[in-house]
Amino acid sequence: MTFTPEESDENPQVLARKSRFLEDKAAAGNFAALMDQQDTIHRSQRVFFDERGDIVSVTYQSPAEVNPLWQTYEFTYTEVAVLDGKDVNKFWVVRRKDGTCELQLRPQATVYATMKDDDVIKIEFSSTETTADCMISIKEDHAIIELSDKFKETMKDVYPIQATIKGKRIFKFHVCDPDQKGVIFDTVTVSMVELLTERFIQKELLADLRHCIVYTTPLFDKYLRT
């Protein structure tokens, strides 16, 4: 039998895959355990939830005790991955009209919903502006907040821990549903000392919220969403 260069044991990629396999097998204990582990990772998971959509259990099999009022739906491992490392209480199950279900970020209850329009502003994108006193960017799983170099220059003689804007040291950015005013999915909180001492601040988001709009209390003269 003749081996191609890709199949040869001397090929670096082949050696790397073999090494990783041996490491994974050793970590699992044996080959059978490794296969069970891989099956578990890629197996769909069943989510149990109540009539409001509140998640009560995420499991590969039925929990020991099942409330007869609970509903259940089997999600693929990629669908349920949105819950990995997250507080499941901040998510819920939404049933579509066709009977299928979706895991969605739960709107967060907050006093912002009762604020007047004058209390907050929407941070807008701009096709012409490239900088502003305060800028925020919403990425797939995090937000980036930063101050312009020009603004930082105006604060150069102020001790960062004492710096304020209109008496405020803490700023909140509300990431909201674009279709339902006042419905907040996540809130990003950042301090003035962070913004002045770091090039930018990165804050984790609960989910991919790039489609959402961002509101904040107007403290800086100019904001920009980038």
Quick rundown:
By secondary structure, this protein is α+β, with helices and mostly antiparallel strands. It contains five helices and 13 strands. It has three domains: 30 residues, no CATH class; 61 residues, no CATH class; 115 residues, no CATH class.
What is the topology?
Elements: H1 12-28, H2 31-41, E1 45-49, E2 55-59, E3 71-75, H3 77-80, E4 91-95, E5 101-105, E6 121-122, E7 134-138, E8 142-147, H4 149-154, E9 170-176, E10 184-191, H5 192-197, E11 201-204, E12 213-216, E13 223-225
Parallel strand pairs: 7-13
Antiparallel strand pairs: 1-2, 1-3, 4-5, 6-12, 7-8, 8-11, 9-10, 9-12
Helix pairs in contact: 1-2
Outline the structure in words.
- There is one protein chain.
- The chain is of the alpha+beta class and 226 residues long.
- The protein has three domains: 12-41, no CATH class; 45-105, no CATH class; 111-225, no CATH class.
- The protein has helices at 12-28, 31-41, 77-80, 149-154, 192-197; strands at 45-49, 55-59, 71-75, 91-95, 101-105, 121-122, 134-138, 142-147, 170-176, 184-191, 201-204, 213-216, 223-225.
- The strands form four sheets. It has a four-stranded antiparallel β-sheet.
- The longest helix is centred in the first third of the chain and has 17 residues, at 12-28.
